[in-house]
Amino acid sequence: MSTPETDARSGTLHDVVTTEVKPPRSGFATFLLVLCAMAFVIAALVRLLGIDGTRYMIAATSLTPYITVVGLLIGLFALFRKRWVIGLTMTVVGVVLVANLAPRAFPDARPNGVGQQVRLMTANLLTGIADAEFIVQEVRKRNIDVLALQELTPQMVGDLDRAGLRQVLPNRVFLDEPGGSGSGIASRFPLSQRNLTPPSTLQQAGALVDLPGKDIEVVSVHPLPPVVTAGPEAWQRELAGLPAPDSTGAIRVLAGDFNATLDHVGLTRLLNKGYVDAADQVGKGLIHTWPSASGFWPPPVTIDHVLVDSKLLVDTLDVFDVPGSDHRAVVTQFVVPRL
What we know:
The chain crosses the membrane at residues 28-49, 56-78, 84-102. Pfam families: Exo_endo_phos. Keywords: Endonuclease, Exonuclease, Hydrolase, Membrane, Nuclease, Transmembrane, Transmembrane helix. GO terms for molecular function: endonuclease activity; exonuclease activity. With 339 residues, the chain is an alpha+beta fold. It has ten helices and 14 strands. It has helices at residues 27-48, 55-61, 64-80, 84-101, 132-141, 154-162, 165-168, 233-240, 265-273, 278-281, and strands spanning 2-6, 13-17, 115-124, 146-150, 171-175, 183-187, 191-193, 206-209, 216-221, 251-257, 275-277, 304-309, 313-321, 328-337. It has a six-stranded mixed β-sheet with strand order 5-6-4-3-14-13. Helix 5 links the parallel strand 3 and strand 4. The chain starts with a strand and ends with a strand. The model has no long low-confidence stretch (mean pLDDT 92).
C-alpha cells in the first residue's frame, strides 16, 4: 500500500510504498503434528488389529483410553490450525476408537434373572501386606459368597483367619506361597479343588463351588505381567491357557488380576469364546483398578476383572480401595440361572 509523505528539504509530497509482511507458516509445528498423527495412527492400528508386539506396545495398548483423548484433542487443534489432512485423519481415527471404548461406560440391556444370586469379590493382596482386617470386614459387610485372592502368602492366611475369615467363608482352596506368587479361593459354599489352568509362573487356584442348583467353577486369575524384562511370552501363554466356557459342565467364572485391559487381544479372545466382562455389562468398564493410589503416574488402568460365562446375568459391580494394596478390589453380584 502507499502513503503520502512530505520531503523535508523540498516540501513536496510523494508516495512511499510499504508492503505488509505475513508471518510464514511454521514448518516445525507441522512437523510435530505429523509425528503425533503417525504415532496416534500406529497406536490405533495396534489396538484395532489386535497386535501384542513387544512389552512396550502392550503397555501402550493399556493406555488406549488416554491415547484416544489426546489424539482427538491434537486432531481438533490441527483442524483449528488448518492442517486439514492431519486434523481429519486424527479425528476420524479418534472417533473409531471412541466407538470401541464408549460402550464400556453404558450398561447393557439384560433380562430379569431367576436363579441363585452369588456375590464374588476379587482382591490382589500385594505380596500379602494388604490389610487383612479390612478384607474380612468388607466380606462381612458386602455379604460375599466367594472370595478370589491373588498374591496370597502364608502370613496373610494367618492374618485373615485371625480377622475371622474362616467364620465367614469356611471353605477354601488356598495355594499360598511366600512373595507374590500365591493364590486362593474362599467360599460360603462347599468347594472342591479343580486344576483348570496349565502350569503357570504364578499360582492360579481353581475350584468347583457347590451351589444350590447349578454349580460354578472359579479361577483366581494371575498371569505374569507382560512388562517384565523377560518379555510378554509368559503373559500371552498364560492368558491363552485360561479355560474357555464349558457348554456342558459347570458354569465358569474367571476373577482376578489379569494384568490386561479390555483393549488387549488376549482378553478379547476370552470374551470371544463366550465370557462377558462384569464391569462392562453394568457400564463400569472404564473404572480403573490399578494403581489404587491417586496420581498421574503410572496412569490408572483397568486390569482386575471378573469374567463370567455369558449365561450368567450380572446385577451389580463395585470397585474400592484396599489399604496396603496397590490394586483395588472388585465385587460383583450375578445370577446363576436355575437348571
